[in-house]
Automatic annotation (TrEMBL):
The keyword Oxidoreductase applies. Its cofactor is FAD. Belongs to the FAD-binding oxidoreductase/transferase type 4 family. This is FAD-binding oxidoreductase.
Length: 461
Protein backbone atom coordinates (compact mmCIF):
# COMPACT_ATOMS: atom_id res chain seq x y z
CA UNK A 1 0.00 0.00 0.00
CA UNK A 2 2.81 2.41 0.90
CA UNK A 3 4.62 1.69 -2.38
CA UNK A 4 1.45 2.22 -4.41
CA UNK A 5 0.72 5.53 -2.70
CA UNK A 6 4.29 6.74 -3.13
CA UNK A 7 4.39 5.83 -6.81
CA UNK A 8 1.05 7.48 -7.51
CA UNK A 9 2.21 10.64 -5.77
CA UNK A 10 5.08 10.87 -8.25
CA UNK A 11 2.49 10.94 -11.04
CA UNK A 12 0.15 13.44 -9.36
CA UNK A 13 0.76 15.03 -5.98
CA UNK A 14 -0.02 14.23 -2.38
CA UNK A 15 -3.41 15.92 -2.11
CA UNK A 16 -4.70 14.10 -5.20
CA UNK A 17 -3.96 10.59 -3.91
CA UNK A 18 -6.13 9.31 -1.09
CA UNK A 19 -5.85 6.11 0.90
CA UNK A 20 -7.90 6.97 3.98
CA UNK A 21 -10.77 4.64 4.87
CA UNK A 22 -13.52 7.21 4.28
CA UNK A 23 -12.35 7.99 0.75
CA UNK A 24 -11.86 4.32 -0.12
CA UNK A 25 -15.37 3.51 1.04
CA UNK A 26 -16.94 6.52 -0.68
CA UNK A 27 -15.24 6.20 -4.05
CA UNK A 28 -15.11 2.42 -4.19
CA UNK A 29 -18.89 1.98 -4.26
CA UNK A 30 -21.81 3.09 -6.43
CA UNK A 31 -25.55 3.03 -5.64
CA UNK A 32 -25.59 -0.75 -5.47
CA UNK A 33 -25.11 -2.08 -1.97
CA UNK A 34 -24.31 -5.74 -2.55
CA UNK A 35 -20.50 -5.48 -2.54
CA UNK A 36 -17.93 -4.33 -0.01
CA UNK A 37 -15.61 -1.65 -1.42
CA UNK A 38 -11.91 -2.46 -1.11
CA UNK A 39 -9.80 -0.21 -3.37
CA UNK A 40 -6.14 0.39 -2.55
CA UNK A 41 -6.22 4.10 -3.43
CA UNK A 42 -8.24 6.87 -5.08
CA UNK A 43 -6.59 9.26 -7.53
CA UNK A 44 -7.83 12.55 -8.96
CA UNK A 45 -6.24 13.40 -12.33
CA UNK A 46 -6.68 16.85 -13.85
CA UNK A 47 -5.68 16.20 -17.45
CA UNK A 48 -5.68 13.63 -20.24
CA UNK A 49 -1.90 13.27 -19.89
CA UNK A 50 -2.26 12.42 -16.21
CA UNK A 51 -4.90 9.78 -16.95
CA UNK A 52 -2.63 8.26 -19.59
CA UNK A 53 0.29 8.23 -17.14
CA UNK A 54 -1.85 6.44 -14.54
CA UNK A 55 -2.88 3.80 -17.08
CA UNK A 56 0.70 3.19 -18.19
CA UNK A 57 1.79 2.87 -14.54
CA UNK A 58 -1.05 0.40 -13.86
CA UNK A 59 0.06 -1.72 -16.81
CA UNK A 60 3.60 -1.88 -15.43
CA UNK A 61 2.33 -2.79 -11.96
CA UNK A 62 -0.50 -5.05 -13.23
CA UNK A 63 -2.94 -3.18 -10.97
CA UNK A 64 -6.59 -2.78 -11.89
CA UNK A 65 -8.16 0.65 -12.41
CA UNK A 66 -11.82 1.45 -11.82
CA UNK A 67 -13.39 4.64 -13.24
CA UNK A 68 -15.42 6.76 -10.84
CA UNK A 69 -17.87 9.42 -11.95
CA UNK A 70 -20.97 10.37 -10.00
CA UNK A 71 -21.25 6.76 -8.74
CA UNK A 72 -25.00 6.74 -9.43
CA UNK A 73 -24.81 3.39 -11.26
CA UNK A 74 -27.09 0.55 -10.29
CA UNK A 75 -25.19 -2.50 -11.59
CA UNK A 76 -21.92 -2.27 -9.62
CA UNK A 77 -20.07 -1.06 -12.70
CA UNK A 78 -17.98 1.39 -10.67
CA UNK A 79 -17.29 -0.81 -7.64
CA UNK A 80 -13.71 -1.61 -6.59
CA UNK A 81 -13.57 -4.83 -4.57
CA UNK A 82 -10.12 -6.32 -5.32
CA UNK A 83 -7.59 -3.68 -4.35
CA UNK A 84 -7.94 -1.67 -7.57
CA UNK A 85 -7.04 2.00 -7.82
CA UNK A 86 -10.11 4.17 -8.33
CA UNK A 87 -9.70 6.93 -10.92
CA UNK A 88 -12.06 9.79 -10.07
CA UNK A 89 -12.90 12.45 -12.66
CA UNK A 90 -14.15 14.98 -10.10
CA UNK A 91 -11.41 17.47 -11.04
CA UNK A 92 -12.03 17.27 -14.81
CA UNK A 93 -15.15 19.41 -15.20
CA UNK A 94 -14.29 21.95 -17.88
CA UNK A 95 -16.73 22.98 -20.63
CA UNK A 96 -15.13 24.67 -23.64
CA UNK A 97 -15.16 25.37 -27.39
CA UNK A 98 -18.87 26.11 -27.73
CA UNK A 99 -19.93 26.38 -31.37
CA UNK A 100 -23.35 28.09 -31.72
CA UNK A 101 -23.57 27.23 -35.42
CA UNK A 102 -22.95 23.52 -34.99
CA UNK A 103 -24.64 23.54 -31.56
CA UNK A 104 -21.75 21.54 -30.13
CA UNK A 105 -19.54 21.88 -27.09
CA UNK A 106 -16.53 20.07 -25.62
CA UNK A 107 -16.77 18.64 -22.11
CA UNK A 108 -14.41 16.82 -19.78
CA UNK A 109 -15.53 13.50 -18.32
CA UNK A 110 -16.33 14.89 -14.87
CA UNK A 111 -18.89 17.44 -16.07
CA UNK A 112 -22.15 16.77 -14.22
CA UNK A 113 -25.23 16.21 -16.36
CA UNK A 114 -27.06 19.16 -14.82
CA UNK A 115 -23.99 21.34 -15.44
CA UNK A 116 -24.21 20.69 -19.18
CA UNK A 117 -27.97 21.22 -19.12
CA UNK A 118 -27.43 24.58 -17.43
CA UNK A 119 -24.73 25.57 -19.91
CA UNK A 120 -27.04 24.73 -22.81
CA UNK A 121 -29.89 26.77 -21.28
CA UNK A 122 -27.60 29.79 -20.86
CA UNK A 123 -27.03 29.69 -24.61
CA UNK A 124 -30.69 29.21 -25.48
CA UNK A 125 -30.24 25.51 -26.18
CA UNK A 126 -31.11 22.18 -24.57
CA UNK A 127 -29.28 19.00 -23.57
CA UNK A 128 -32.11 16.47 -23.58
CA UNK A 129 -30.66 13.33 -21.95
CA UNK A 130 -32.26 13.57 -18.54
CA UNK A 131 -32.88 11.48 -15.41
CA UNK A 132 -33.35 11.85 -11.67
CA UNK A 133 -29.60 11.69 -10.91
CA UNK A 134 -28.84 14.65 -13.19
CA UNK A 135 -27.44 16.62 -10.24
CA UNK A 136 -24.65 14.13 -9.49
CA UNK A 137 -24.14 11.82 -12.50
CA UNK A 138 -21.17 12.71 -14.70
CA UNK A 139 -21.03 12.77 -18.50
CA UNK A 140 -18.15 10.30 -18.66
CA UNK A 141 -20.26 7.76 -16.81
CA UNK A 142 -23.35 8.61 -18.86
CA UNK A 143 -21.43 7.94 -22.07
CA UNK A 144 -19.81 4.80 -20.69
CA UNK A 145 -23.26 3.34 -19.95
CA UNK A 146 -25.08 4.95 -22.90
CA UNK A 147 -27.51 6.48 -20.41
CA UNK A 148 -31.13 6.83 -21.45
CA UNK A 149 -33.55 8.35 -18.95
CA UNK A 150 -36.93 9.99 -19.33
CA UNK A 151 -36.70 11.66 -22.78
CA UNK A 152 -35.63 8.70 -24.94
CA UNK A 153 -38.96 8.49 -26.73
CA UNK A 154 -38.27 11.91 -28.31
CA UNK A 155 -34.51 12.45 -28.11
CA UNK A 156 -32.88 9.02 -28.01
CA UNK A 157 -29.95 7.82 -25.90
CA UNK A 158 -26.67 9.46 -24.91
CA UNK A 159 -25.08 7.83 -27.97
CA UNK A 160 -27.17 10.07 -30.21
CA UNK A 161 -25.60 13.23 -28.74
CA UNK A 162 -21.92 12.27 -28.78
CA UNK A 163 -20.19 13.80 -31.80
CA UNK A 164 -16.64 12.91 -30.77
CA UNK A 165 -14.66 11.30 -27.96
CA UNK A 166 -11.25 11.54 -26.38
CA UNK A 167 -10.32 8.27 -24.71
CA UNK A 168 -7.34 6.71 -22.99
CA UNK A 169 -7.18 3.04 -23.93
CA UNK A 170 -6.21 0.21 -21.62
CA UNK A 171 -2.68 0.47 -23.04
CA UNK A 172 -2.39 4.18 -22.23
CA UNK A 173 -2.84 5.42 -25.80
CA UNK A 174 -4.84 8.62 -26.32
CA UNK A 175 -7.38 8.42 -29.15
CA UNK A 176 -9.39 11.36 -30.47
CA UNK A 177 -12.38 9.91 -32.26
CA UNK A 178 -14.52 11.58 -34.96
CA UNK A 179 -13.70 15.20 -33.97
CA UNK A 180 -17.33 16.33 -33.97
CA UNK A 181 -17.97 15.48 -37.61
CA UNK A 182 -21.49 14.81 -38.85
CA UNK A 183 -20.20 12.86 -41.85
CA UNK A 184 -17.09 10.71 -41.64
CA UNK A 185 -17.00 7.66 -43.90
CA UNK A 186 -13.48 6.50 -43.07
CA UNK A 187 -14.07 3.05 -41.67
CA UNK A 188 -14.71 1.80 -38.15
CA UNK A 189 -16.24 4.39 -35.84
CA UNK A 190 -14.39 3.44 -32.66
CA UNK A 191 -16.33 6.10 -30.79
CA UNK A 192 -19.31 3.78 -30.61
CA UNK A 193 -17.27 0.93 -29.15
CA UNK A 194 -16.46 3.06 -26.12
CA UNK A 195 -20.04 4.32 -25.71
CA UNK A 196 -21.77 1.77 -23.49
CA UNK A 197 -18.58 -0.23 -22.81
CA UNK A 198 -18.77 0.59 -19.06
CA UNK A 199 -15.14 1.69 -18.98
CA UNK A 200 -13.83 -1.78 -19.86
CA UNK A 201 -11.88 -0.72 -22.98
CA UNK A 202 -10.40 2.48 -21.58
CA UNK A 203 -11.33 5.75 -19.94
CA UNK A 204 -13.54 8.34 -21.60
CA UNK A 205 -11.81 11.61 -20.67
CA UNK A 206 -13.63 14.09 -22.92
CA UNK A 207 -16.38 14.39 -25.50
CA UNK A 208 -17.80 16.68 -28.14
CA UNK A 209 -21.52 16.89 -27.36
CA UNK A 210 -24.40 18.00 -29.56
CA UNK A 211 -27.15 20.25 -28.19
CA UNK A 212 -30.76 20.79 -29.33
CA UNK A 213 -33.18 23.68 -29.54
CA UNK A 214 -35.09 24.41 -26.37
CA UNK A 215 -38.53 22.81 -26.15
CA UNK A 216 -41.48 25.19 -25.95
CA UNK A 217 -43.75 25.14 -22.92
CA UNK A 218 -43.28 21.57 -21.76
CA UNK A 219 -46.57 20.40 -20.27
CA UNK A 220 -47.20 17.35 -18.09
CA UNK A 221 -50.34 15.21 -18.01
CA UNK A 222 -50.71 12.66 -15.20
CA UNK A 223 -53.33 9.92 -15.58
CA UNK A 224 -54.68 7.35 -13.13
CA UNK A 225 -54.81 3.94 -14.83
CA UNK A 226 -56.81 1.09 -13.23
CA UNK A 227 -55.33 -1.89 -15.12
CA UNK A 228 -51.85 -2.92 -16.23
CA UNK A 229 -53.03 -3.52 -19.80
CA UNK A 230 -54.36 0.04 -19.93
CA UNK A 231 -50.85 1.52 -19.73
CA UNK A 232 -49.91 0.47 -23.25
CA UNK A 233 -53.37 1.32 -24.58
CA UNK A 234 -52.91 4.87 -23.31
CA UNK A 235 -49.45 4.94 -24.86
CA UNK A 236 -50.71 3.94 -28.29
CA UNK A 237 -53.52 6.47 -28.12
CA UNK A 238 -51.28 9.42 -27.23
CA UNK A 239 -48.24 8.39 -29.25
CA UNK A 240 -50.35 8.09 -32.39
CA UNK A 241 -52.20 11.31 -31.64
CA UNK A 242 -49.45 13.80 -30.77
CA UNK A 243 -45.65 14.20 -30.45
CA UNK A 244 -44.51 13.21 -26.95
CA UNK A 245 -41.28 14.10 -25.19
CA UNK A 246 -41.75 11.54 -22.39
CA UNK A 247 -44.05 8.69 -21.40
CA UNK A 248 -43.52 7.15 -17.95
CA UNK A 249 -45.47 4.89 -15.65
CA UNK A 250 -45.31 3.91 -11.98
CA UNK A 251 -47.33 1.87 -9.53
CA UNK A 252 -49.28 2.88 -6.44
CA UNK A 253 -46.62 1.14 -4.33
CA UNK A 254 -43.98 3.38 -5.89
CA UNK A 255 -46.07 6.49 -5.29
CA UNK A 256 -46.60 5.45 -1.68
CA UNK A 257 -42.87 5.54 -1.00
CA UNK A 258 -42.56 9.00 -2.57
CA UNK A 259 -45.48 10.38 -0.55
CA UNK A 260 -44.09 8.89 2.67
CA UNK A 261 -41.15 11.29 2.46
CA UNK A 262 -43.54 14.23 2.91
CA UNK A 263 -42.23 16.26 -0.04
CA UNK A 264 -45.17 15.66 -2.40
CA UNK A 265 -48.94 15.45 -2.23
CA UNK A 266 -51.21 12.74 -3.59
CA UNK A 267 -52.32 13.93 -7.04
CA UNK A 268 -55.86 12.47 -6.94
CA UNK A 269 -58.42 11.94 -4.21
CA UNK A 270 -58.44 8.17 -4.77
CA UNK A 271 -55.51 5.83 -5.25
CA UNK A 272 -55.08 3.94 -8.50
CA UNK A 273 -53.05 0.77 -9.14
CA UNK A 274 -51.00 2.54 -11.83
CA UNK A 275 -50.19 6.02 -13.07
CA UNK A 276 -49.00 7.33 -16.41
CA UNK A 277 -47.05 10.57 -16.76
CA UNK A 278 -46.64 11.99 -20.23
CA UNK A 279 -45.01 15.19 -21.40
CA UNK A 280 -45.45 17.24 -24.58
CA UNK A 281 -44.67 20.64 -25.99
CA UNK A 282 -47.59 23.06 -25.91
CA UNK A 283 -46.53 26.29 -27.62
CA UNK A 284 -50.23 27.07 -28.30
CA UNK A 285 -53.56 26.12 -26.74
CA UNK A 286 -54.17 23.67 -29.58
CA UNK A 287 -51.71 21.11 -28.17
CA UNK A 288 -53.32 21.17 -24.73
CA UNK A 289 -56.80 20.88 -26.26
CA UNK A 290 -55.62 17.86 -28.25
CA UNK A 291 -54.27 16.25 -25.09
CA UNK A 292 -57.63 16.79 -23.37
CA UNK A 293 -59.49 15.20 -26.26
CA UNK A 294 -57.21 12.14 -26.14
CA UNK A 295 -57.70 11.96 -22.37
CA UNK A 296 -61.46 11.89 -22.90
CA UNK A 297 -61.05 8.97 -25.31
CA UNK A 298 -58.94 7.15 -22.73
CA UNK A 299 -61.58 7.58 -20.03
CA UNK A 300 -64.38 6.51 -22.38
CA UNK A 301 -62.44 3.32 -23.11
CA UNK A 302 -61.84 2.72 -19.40
CA UNK A 303 -58.06 2.97 -19.72
CA UNK A 304 -57.88 6.02 -17.44
CA UNK A 305 -60.14 7.14 -14.59
CA UNK A 306 -58.68 10.53 -13.65
CA UNK A 307 -56.18 13.08 -14.88
CA UNK A 308 -54.45 16.36 -14.14
CA UNK A 309 -52.53 18.66 -16.49
CA UNK A 310 -49.83 21.08 -15.34
CA UNK A 311 -50.78 24.77 -15.42
CA UNK A 312 -47.33 26.15 -14.67
CA UNK A 313 -43.67 25.22 -14.83
CA UNK A 314 -43.65 24.62 -11.08
CA UNK A 315 -46.65 22.31 -11.24
CA UNK A 316 -44.97 20.36 -14.04
CA UNK A 317 -41.90 19.94 -11.82
CA UNK A 318 -44.09 18.81 -8.92
CA UNK A 319 -45.77 16.18 -11.07
CA UNK A 320 -42.39 14.96 -12.33
CA UNK A 321 -41.23 14.53 -8.73
CA UNK A 322 -43.85 11.84 -8.24
CA UNK A 323 -41.93 9.76 -10.79
CA UNK A 324 -38.36 10.96 -10.36
CA UNK A 325 -38.20 10.65 -6.57
CA UNK A 326 -39.02 6.93 -6.59
CA UNK A 327 -35.44 5.60 -6.69
CA UNK A 328 -34.27 7.81 -3.85
CA UNK A 329 -37.38 7.01 -1.83
CA UNK A 330 -36.82 3.25 -1.93
CA UNK A 331 -33.02 3.30 -1.55
CA UNK A 332 -33.15 2.78 2.26
CA UNK A 333 -34.88 -0.56 1.58
CA UNK A 334 -31.80 -1.87 -0.30
CA UNK A 335 -33.75 -2.71 -3.49
CA UNK A 336 -32.68 -5.43 -5.91
CA UNK A 337 -33.25 -3.95 -9.34
CA UNK A 338 -34.13 -5.53 -12.67
CA UNK A 339 -33.74 -2.99 -15.48
CA UNK A 340 -35.17 -4.77 -18.51
CA UNK A 341 -36.53 -3.91 -21.93
CA UNK A 342 -38.41 -5.35 -24.89
CA UNK A 343 -39.64 -3.74 -28.07
CA UNK A 344 -42.65 -1.54 -27.41
CA UNK A 345 -44.96 -3.70 -29.53
CA UNK A 346 -44.19 -6.71 -27.30
CA UNK A 347 -44.53 -4.80 -24.03
CA UNK A 348 -48.22 -5.61 -23.26
CA UNK A 349 -47.78 -9.40 -23.52
CA UNK A 350 -44.42 -9.24 -21.76
CA UNK A 351 -45.84 -7.23 -18.86
CA UNK A 352 -48.70 -9.68 -18.36
CA UNK A 353 -46.36 -12.66 -18.15
CA UNK A 354 -43.89 -10.76 -15.97
CA UNK A 355 -46.65 -9.75 -13.57
CA UNK A 356 -47.60 -13.41 -13.14
CA UNK A 357 -43.98 -14.43 -12.45
CA UNK A 358 -43.44 -11.72 -9.85
CA UNK A 359 -46.73 -12.50 -8.08
CA UNK A 360 -45.84 -16.19 -7.98
CA UNK A 361 -42.19 -15.91 -6.97
CA UNK A 362 -42.34 -12.94 -4.62
CA UNK A 363 -45.46 -13.58 -2.50
CA UNK A 364 -43.90 -12.06 0.62
CA UNK A 365 -41.76 -9.30 -0.92
CA UNK A 366 -42.82 -5.81 -1.87
CA UNK A 367 -42.24 -5.23 -5.59
CA UNK A 368 -42.20 -1.67 -6.96
CA UNK A 369 -42.83 -1.12 -10.68
CA UNK A 370 -41.93 1.94 -12.70
CA UNK A 371 -40.22 2.76 -15.95
CA UNK A 372 -39.83 4.45 -19.30
CA UNK A 373 -42.50 2.32 -20.88
CA UNK A 374 -42.64 4.54 -23.97
CA UNK A 375 -39.37 2.94 -25.07
CA UNK A 376 -40.09 -0.53 -23.67
CA UNK A 377 -38.00 -0.11 -20.49
CA UNK A 378 -39.25 -1.45 -17.15
CA UNK A 379 -37.65 -1.06 -13.72
CA UNK A 380 -38.59 -3.82 -11.30
CA UNK A 381 -37.48 -3.12 -7.72
CA UNK A 382 -37.69 -5.82 -5.07
CA UNK A 383 -37.47 -4.31 -1.59
CA UNK A 384 -35.54 -6.12 1.11
CA UNK A 385 -37.58 -7.07 4.20
CA UNK A 386 -36.10 -5.31 7.20
CA UNK A 387 -35.42 -8.53 9.12
CA UNK A 388 -33.82 -10.41 6.20
CA UNK A 389 -30.00 -10.62 5.92
CA UNK A 390 -28.69 -8.93 2.79
CA UNK A 391 -26.92 -12.06 1.49
CA UNK A 392 -30.04 -14.20 1.82
CA UNK A 393 -32.10 -11.49 0.12
CA UNK A 394 -29.66 -11.26 -2.78
CA UNK A 395 -29.66 -15.05 -3.24
CA UNK A 396 -33.44 -15.15 -3.37
CA UNK A 397 -33.60 -12.30 -5.88
CA UNK A 398 -30.97 -13.94 -8.07
CA UNK A 399 -33.04 -17.13 -8.07
CA UNK A 400 -36.07 -15.23 -9.31
CA UNK A 401 -33.98 -13.21 -11.77
CA UNK A 402 -33.39 -16.38 -13.73
CA UNK A 403 -37.15 -16.68 -14.27
CA UNK A 404 -37.33 -13.00 -15.25
CA UNK A 405 -34.41 -13.28 -17.64
CA UNK A 406 -35.79 -16.42 -19.24
CA UNK A 407 -38.87 -14.37 -20.05
CA UNK A 408 -36.68 -11.52 -21.36
CA UNK A 409 -34.92 -13.99 -23.63
CA UNK A 410 -38.23 -15.39 -24.85
CA UNK A 411 -39.24 -11.88 -25.94
CA UNK A 412 -35.81 -11.07 -27.47
CA UNK A 413 -35.28 -8.34 -24.90
CA UNK A 414 -32.39 -6.99 -22.83
CA UNK A 415 -31.47 -7.84 -19.25
CA UNK A 416 -30.17 -4.28 -18.87
CA UNK A 417 -31.92 -1.50 -20.72
CA UNK A 418 -29.91 1.43 -19.36
CA UNK A 419 -28.23 0.63 -16.04
CA UNK A 420 -25.45 -1.41 -17.59
CA UNK A 421 -24.18 -4.87 -16.67
CA UNK A 422 -21.31 -4.26 -14.26
CA UNK A 423 -20.79 -6.99 -11.67
CA UNK A 424 -24.44 -7.38 -10.78
CA UNK A 425 -25.68 -8.64 -14.16
CA UNK A 426 -22.43 -9.95 -15.68
CA UNK A 427 -23.22 -13.62 -15.15
CA UNK A 428 -26.62 -13.18 -16.84
CA UNK A 429 -25.30 -11.61 -20.04
CA UNK A 430 -25.96 -14.83 -21.96
CA UNK A 431 -29.70 -14.18 -21.72
CA UNK A 432 -29.26 -11.18 -24.04
CA UNK A 433 -26.06 -11.96 -25.95
CA UNK A 434 -25.09 -15.12 -27.82
CA UNK A 435 -21.93 -17.06 -27.05
CA UNK A 436 -20.49 -15.83 -30.35
CA UNK A 437 -21.20 -12.20 -29.48
CA UNK A 438 -19.56 -12.55 -26.08
CA UNK A 439 -16.50 -14.14 -27.68
CA UNK A 440 -16.13 -11.10 -29.95
CA UNK A 441 -16.63 -8.79 -26.97
CA UNK A 442 -13.78 -10.54 -25.13
CA UNK A 443 -11.60 -10.25 -28.22
CA UNK A 444 -12.29 -6.51 -28.47
CA UNK A 445 -11.45 -6.12 -24.78
CA UNK A 446 -8.14 -7.91 -25.40
CA UNK A 447 -7.20 -5.49 -28.20
CA UNK A 448 -7.76 -2.33 -26.18
CA UNK A 449 -6.81 -3.68 -22.74
CA UNK A 450 -4.45 -6.66 -23.19
CA UNK A 451 -3.45 -6.77 -19.52
CA UNK A 452 -7.03 -6.60 -18.30
CA UNK A 453 -6.45 -3.67 -15.96
CA UNK A 454 -9.35 -1.39 -16.98
CA UNK A 455 -12.46 -1.96 -14.84
CA UNK A 456 -11.57 -5.65 -14.45
CA UNK A 457 -14.34 -8.21 -13.97
CA UNK A 458 -17.11 -5.97 -15.27
CA UNK A 459 -19.53 -6.51 -18.16
CA UNK A 460 -18.12 -9.60 -19.93
CA UNK A 461 -18.05 -12.91 -18.00
Amino acid sequence: MTDIRTELMTLLNENRVRTDADSLGQYGLDWTRFHTPAPSAVVFPRSVDEVAAIVRWANQRKIGLVPSGGRTGLSAGAVATQGEVVVSFDLMRAISDFDPVERTVTIEAGVVTEQLQGFAAEHGLYYPVDFASRGSSQLGGNISTNAGGIKVIRYGLTRDWVMGLTVVTGQGDVLRLNNGLVKNATGYDLRHLFIGAEGTLGFIVGARMRLARQPRNLTVLLLAVPELDGIMSVFRLFNDGMPLTAFEFFSEQALGHVLARGHSQRPFESASPYYVLLEFEAPTDAETELAFSLFEKATEAGWAVDGIVSQSEQQAKDLWRLREDISESITPRRPYKNDISVTVSKAPAFMRELDAILAREYPDFEVVWFGHIGDGNLHINVLKPEDMPIDAFKRECERVSQWVFELVKKFDGSISAEHGVGLLKRDYLGYSRSAEEMAYMRAIKQVFDPNGIINPGKLVP
